[in-house]
User: Fold these one by one.
Assistant:
Number 1:
Amino acid sequence: MGVFENKFQDNVVVASLDKLMGWARSTSPWFFQFGLACCAIEMMATAASRHDLMRIGMIPRSSPRQADVMIVAGTVTLKMALRVKKLYEQMANPKYVISMGSCATSGGPYWQHGYHVLKGVDLVVPVDVYVPGCPPRPEALIEGLLKLQEKIQSERPLTRKTA
Amino acid sequence: MTDNLEQLIKEAVEKALEGDIDVINNIEDRVTRSKAKAALVKAKREAIKEKNEASPDENSNDSSDSKKDKTTNEHIAELLIQQFPDDINKELSSNKHIQIQPKNWLVISKYLRDDPACLFDSLQCITGVDLGEESDLEVRYNLHSMTHRHAVEIRISCPRKKAKVPSVESIWRIGDWFERETYDMYGIEFEGHRDLKRILLPEDWEGWPLRKDYEVQETYHGIIVPKVKEGWE
Amino acid sequence: MGIVKGDQMVLNIGPQHPSTHGVLRLKVVTDGEIVSDIEPIIGYLHRCFEKHCENSTYEQVIPFTDRCDYIASMNNNFGYVVAMEKLMEIKVPDRVEYIRIIMAELNRIASHLLALGVYGLDVGAFTPFLYMFRDRERILDIFELTCGARLLYNYMWVGGVSHDLPVGFVETVYGFLDYFEPKLKEYNEILTYNKIFIERTADVGVLPPEVAISYGVSGPNLRGSGVKWDLRKDEPYSIYERFDFDVPIGEGTVGTTGDCWDRFYVRMLEMTESAKILRQALKDLPQDGDVHQAIPKKIRPPKGSIYQRTESPRGDLAYYIISDGSPQPYRLKMRSPAFTALSVLNEISRGWMLSDVIAILGSLDIVLGEIDR
């Protein structure tokens, strides 16, 4: 993939290929099972019986190498921040990040006096979708994942980027 | 098939209750055996329950014991004053806690654990307290005895600059982690601790967060710590 | 257990690992497959709970207690409000007490369901996890009906609760109990007496009672070692003395007393007992009474301190609150049961295989949010 990425000029063939690739990528983004705090319990509930994430093609993986999406579920502390960055770097391209819950987004209830809390995971890794809530309901997480699928679909991986 | 098994278990339990435990031990299938054992335990428990209901006197005894607990602190304080007259600070102690000097704390704690009148076999909690920016630090120990079912609170204060308290890690094993936590938050050094280092915060963290005069560091490994996003507040 | 001296290897498990129940790091020294030393490294979820308490008013502390033990938030709220009411000498109405007991016991069942389901997952059984989550969702529905939240409720307030029970609540809980109690048998069939499960957990990680007490282990872990100690029974707080229930203890049914299976089974039995308490509480629930009546306008406890213990699903949960007469706590320390439970890991898993360490860790039922606070 890396060889062809952003190498072609925009034309009919490339545009169709882009569409095909976007569709293929979007339908089954495997997510990185990466629970940090409270939100991880809701993430588990989303993957378990009632909400059943697998019906939209999301399968939990335990290793960053096998995953496409990292769901940062919970408070990122400074001790953990460097590990989160390392885990993100271990994922293969293309990779996406969902920041789940207000803690991962901005520090949440811990933003004011949390001397050991990272004020938003976007300080260490780039984030694609923010899911608000403390903790977000499973439906909210599913909505976030569907939004991510939309985003992946609209990407044009082959087309050369014009500045 | 299942009816047979249940019948088998039932018979085995009845025989075991009469004293012949081998009947259960001789069941070959491990799963069936464990089920039989569980059934036996249940049957025994019910038997004990019936016995207890027959004699309600025991319960009333228990409640009168717990009323005595109000004076536990004073009672233990008297014992300690007899044993260690120099180490107990009588003026600062109250009916809720005992204030002692740090010097002989290890010996006193051993006494508290082993003396038949005390038998404090469980260290419930160690709380560090900062008494104010100009005054001392304090360590509070909550002890509990599973045998006598009584509890006591010990307080030891130490100066802010050279905060040192003897470690009780060898007396109660949980002291290890509790002391590390107190060290992490207040910088109180526990002398004699085998491995005193930070437990919650990273090892290269600066300062003691729960002291009242703590100021958070600006960056940690290049990440800005107290950052507040624009547009907030 | 004879350990062959050989080349030792240090293995790092976590902080990101599916079976560490969160962000826990284990530094394991192994000799081949045999574990010779474990150092748990915690603090990856240290969220400065105690610092926040010192900077918030007493009411504002309650949401933070929710987030400490996020699996049993009701019980955390309960511990805090019990301590505060004792410090301020508030008498709450009977209806509030009953509502609190109902919520706490429902949350205990939910917490144990999650713990047992995930434990099944740890030792390789995926189906019980789905079954238990299915039933846990029904409890969360009840909570949602009452206070609108699924996980972190902020439901119990000092002197009362945030919302009165909704219409049809009692019937819903009865319906749940009628559904749930037969399910316990199903869990036993699918997991407890499963041959593979017994092989993985019986005789593994035996925790002797005196070691458990010295390490301050409490709750189901202590009872699994055969010590009959339950604060609901031994130091009754709230109105627990009004209910008739048993305290199940480990008996070494399939192995040695205090092994992983015992700790697991004690939780299983506790769910039955909680259901028993629930039925009694629902029966006696007073019909009238204002749940906001005893809530003080201003929370300013008198100068002093209090150490109050309550029984959370994980054990003795205690709050040490120091008040200086202002609306903010001077110092608030939370004694978390999972913290002490994790500290015993090194002691009981030395000499076992690496895969057994996962079984032992799972059986201790730790919540990292409560350990790191």
Number 2:
Amino acid sequence: MKLPDKNGHFGQFGGRYVSETLMPALLELEQAYARYKTDREFKAEFAYYLKQYVGRPNPLYFAEKLTKRLGGAKIYLKREDLNHTGAHKINNTIGQGLLAKRMGKRRVIAETGAGQHGVATATVAALMGMECEVFMGAEDIQRQSLNVFRMKLLGATVTSVSSGTATLKDAMNEAMRNWVTTIRDTFYVIGTVAGPHPYPVMVRDFQSIIGREARRQHLRQEGRLPDVLVAAVGGGSNALGLFYPFLKDASVRMVGVEASGYGIPSGRHAAPLCAGSVGVLHGNKTYLLQDDDGQIAHAHSISAGLDYPGVGPEHAWLKDSGRAEYVSITDDEALEGFQALTREEGIIPALESAHAIAHVLKLAPTLSREQSIVVCLSGRGDKDMHTVAQAMGVSL
Amino acid sequence: MTRIGKKFSELKLAKRKALITFITAGDGSLACTERLVPAMAAAGADIIELGVPFSDPMADGLAIQLSSERSLANGTNLTAILSTVKKIRQGCDVPLLLMGYYNPVFVYGIERFCLDAADAGVDGVLLVDLPPEEAAGFSRFAAAAGLDFISLLTPTSDASRIAKVKKIGRGFIYYVSVAGVTGARTTVAQDIGPMVAAIREKASLPVAVGFGISTPEQAAAVAKLADGVVVGSALVKLFEKFAGDELIREITATVRALKAGMEQID
């Protein structure tokens, strides 16, 4: 069976749960994407920008000191933090930006949580000469003021969203509302592998450069495939980008790391795959944090980029089919991961990526020295200095 | 045929148009909803839509977002809404439909929901984020339970969309007059007439027009073109200022004015 089906379903997950106004736009996008993803000129232009503008391929770095300290499997870092704009998000916004231009759209909009996707979208809008509006929760604007300033410098309008919980999910609601109103000239750049079909597939495809490079690099450096892949999962785009090219390699374990905030028993977390239930939000059916009445719950994570009550539908499918496993890491554990990588390797990770590192701290010692782990270092930590300082009780 | 179908047939014979009014169930309180439904019916509402509140109302403008938040803060859920409908049905026969988002219904269980809703006396259901591509299962259970599944069409819908909706839609078609979210606007969209005519002909169902209609003048203008007129945000906004008896007076006065506007057409 080919997944997803023609309406974007991965088993029961995915689909297109949107208002009728958006359906023609999604169908138009699906057609355009189907046409250009095999178009030689489009592919060449995408490859050009990934190389010359983003700086790909980025290294698969052997973290020798961290490996020695943990005394188990070899740890390799896929260095998405070295990309232009400092995270994996740019891979996707370049792809969607090129598509928007070909579709004749003059304006792009985006939602953002930590601000990384907003910055990546504003960057591409500046590069490609398009108008850009980014929707961001009022609470996140407070937490991530530096990224707000970056977006404004890049020429984007940042619109504060104070409805609901004033975080990422509400920013996405507002972006959808804006898109319904401006559908004829606007392209909605979704930042993760969620939302209505074809976004989960399209974003996965643009991000799968991560896994294609990592697979090739690991084969070259180790002469074999890695044993385990580890990546943080909020919406899940860096994880799926890493996992997807390995799906058919049955020997490769895949571990997605969700954020369990104050701990799953506290109820204040962002781990729908580990502790959520199936529902429909933002255009797709997936695992969600919700109450017994189907009202969406507040998510919590120290990392604004993981602070989302849903997850991409393909992850929901990979969980139920057993192909990937999903675990969770608390705020405190993530901070330990953050410190460990900073001190051992001189690499300051984003708090999102620190969740993946924190899981590696637990996993690596349980594996043999002949085995290896590839962990996606999805972004760099510059944006998180204020949050980390606050957590450590330091005032800047 | 449900009360909705019968109402449109009756109105057609009398050469009149349906006034469809929307309030969020549980805004004010469910006790308030229970009083408002018969009061709106007596003031001239032909069909009443009760909004089922959702935490993430993506298709709604500010007025209905705030209304949903107020209702959820009152502890409203589907079970309580259905028991309110049951109470309303003891003395009121106005056609009733529930309007909202898919998730609360999905979590309740779609088959169980359709059976319970029909049992409570609901006539139809409109789910804004359940397009025809995803609606096959739900529309089957709705039909089996005797509920009308009301479908939406919009200015962006072409002939292929109308054909898709025709296959599953029952009762009437809700034509969203603008590409946008719910909420009052100063002018009514221009291209309503031809779209409504095309839909009515192709889908062979009555067509009601909603989104952005708030004044008696706008209602009258749209009533000339369509089989029904939906007014929501203009009523919902009254909950921001009024409560109790005063709220009921304001709502019924507004409904009466809308109805009077619509009755002036030849």
